[in-house]
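Quick one - inputs below.
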Amino acid sequence: MDDRRLYFREAGTIFWNGMLFRNPVLAGALGLYPVVAAGCGMRNATALSLLFLIIALPTQLLLCLAGMLLPRWARPAAVLLLSAVFYLPAARAVEWLFPGSLADLGMAAALMACNSIVYARASEYAPEHILLAAAADAAGCSVGFAGVICLVSALREYWLTGGLWGTGVSGIGEGLDAPFAGFLLLGFLAALMRQVNIQRERRYAEVE
Amino acid sequence: MKLSNASPPFLHTDVTVMSMLGDRIFALCALLVIPTVRYGPRPLVMAGLSVLICLVCELLTGLMRKEGVPVTEWSFAVTGLVITMLMPVNAPLWLPCAACLFAELAAKAPFGGFGRTPFNPAAAGVAFATLCWPKQMFSYVDPAEPQWLPVWGECSVHTAQSAAAYLKSGLKPDILPFDMLWGDMAGPLGTGAALVIGACALLLFVRRAAHAETTLCFLAAAAALAALFPRIACSPLTSVKYELLSGSLFFCSVFLMDPVSSLHTAAGRCIYGAAAGGLLMAFRHFGAYEQGAVFAVLIANALSPLISSAVGRARGWEGSVYG
Amino acid sequence: MIPHGVRLEQQKRASLKNEIVSLPSPEDLPAPPKIKPLKKGAAAPRILSAAEEAGIADEFDGMMLERKLSLFASRKTELLVACGFDEDPYTSGAEAVLRESAEDVAEGLWLAAKACGAKERLVAASSRREARRFAACCTGTAAVAAGNRYPARTLLMQKLRRGGKKAEWIGVQACAALGAAVRGECRNETVVTVAGDGVRRWGNFRVRIGTPVGDVLAAGKPEKRVCLVAVGSSVTGRTVTDLSLPVTAATRCVIALKRPPRVPAHPCVGCGRCARACPAGVLPWLVYRELEGGSPEALRLFHVEDCVGCGACHTVCPSGIDLMAAVRRAAGLKEGRDLHETE
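Output:
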């Protein structure tokens, strides 16, 4: 019983790390392209987040189940293959929930099939950890990615249109749909995350 | 007599960071004279507001870094004044303020403040303003109707196309190159009076507050490309005159080529200046905006480490044990 | 060619206005030893022993003259240059001695050249005017102007050595003292410049070696608000808080300041002045950048071992960075690495 509770607590830690403290976008500089290039509106951001979740979770779980049976050299190919396979239902689901969003996203949607976050976590982390950990990691990274892309997109959409979810009429200015704005916002958020991590490390060092 | 210890040297040359920045500020203030005479106190108010915003940002970021009130140099004034010079005189007052905020908070403070900026903060601020508010950035008051503009509030004035806009459209500007020397044309606030900019440049070169080789190579590269690839049907010399005197090319070649974001060696600075001049002409030919000097400068800033590394390798600084 | 060195504002006019003033010797100092005069045409070993007996030290580096001349002889020095100028902007003792005792200097230089076997002699003066003045006085010895860029000694020596000469320096006071020693006079004295905004009377004072620094300072009529007293040089010297410290042959100057020059420290602005000022070809900005980076690469700290410690880079840096300390630290690092590689 104690072991199970410990497992769940550890899984919680893994989830929080994936979502916040080791956020793959802010701390790992992964998955930047969808955020900077396509993260200009809340609708696009939500669609991409859903795509990510539906691709990442089963891919990581399957790689975890395969574990060490799959040789290391074969993992990248396996990840890409599985991502491409899971892209199909993901795209279906996204198109059903947000009609026309795939066309709006263009290349950014298709490129989710070779997302660097999924590639990194599924080929390095998932095969070497237990199922619960892989699931927590996938969920945490999905929520973390969603959080970052939604925040960046909200800021950019508000600047450009003065509202969110297409409700805006006239914005503050133009230009923030260019990638540079995405990089700048990510940079500031990454710095904020780093500061949070430094404060945590200091607190743990004091406790010790 | 209470004596204390100190480390040498016990004297210093007159040139300090403050004196170098002071020279730049003096030169920039000189550029404010003609617009103030022509349009009233509005340019002074714009400049003052820009400098104030930059100062407040500097104080805030210094407090955040727990350095107390660290205003030991006047780079914030240089940033504010350069941004003002690149704005139209009839621009809304919030426009240079927004550019200054970006320059200080996004291009200067995150990198550690003065002396550590890989990108020229003023160029970054103006680039941001250009991308976000292109309409306001390229709407210039018509100099054919001289008038004093309202100090505060909106300026509803007749606007005119700048010479740079004419060239962008492939048309010959309706002003002679000789008349462009005096700055009596539509354009940014402080970039028109080429003669005054030239005098300021000489002052900065003599006082060693700016490097002459960077500016000269910048102008030479731009002139060469203007002669070889004119945008309008004219002789190469006429194309050179129009290109060098239109837009903010001349101003940027002097005031945006600052030593901090530039290179440490003369050879590197020559390459850097030439690269910036070439990029500017490329932006003029293929860019979306009539003026792309600030973007060219930012890209040249990004190329600085590569140029520095190449020069170091050529000089044998990388990997030579015995020098 | 890019001129090296840095032009510093010279502060010598006030101290050179008057002649050298001799200060009374402190009572507790022993009398200088009595030495026998040498016969005319004495050989090199006799000249060297006269220098040793008189206890003459070179005023620029404090080295005993006998030892210095023996070293020059072993190095087969071809050209002996008497340094009749001070590169330090405040110090003017050498120039004052050259003006006052040109013939003694010329004679001493001739003796020193004989002692170390140098075939040629030269007197370096601070300016063309001083060189012409000396040449008019002493027609047998050539004179050259040192130039007005700091560090003038290093730059002149580089110029002479580039001409293919094995040249070495000797101080004019040492030359004059050697001439006197050969005549049987032991001059246990040195000329010290007193200057700075903390004294009312700038001048050159001839004092016995061993005189307290405070006595020399007192001759300059210091003001009460003096907070800094520096000796040696205004660029590379050191401060003293204990004014009872004795004057040595290499003291050169006593500079009193009401407040130390404070240049607020800023990051490097990339002006390149330090590289232009360095006479040894070091790139202080590159060395500083390497050290600031945290993991300096020894291969990029090139020429740091050639640093002459003139401090021109620090003096000229608008950001007030202690580049000389950075170059010294780099030289120490590089030396350490070289030692490690040979193990």
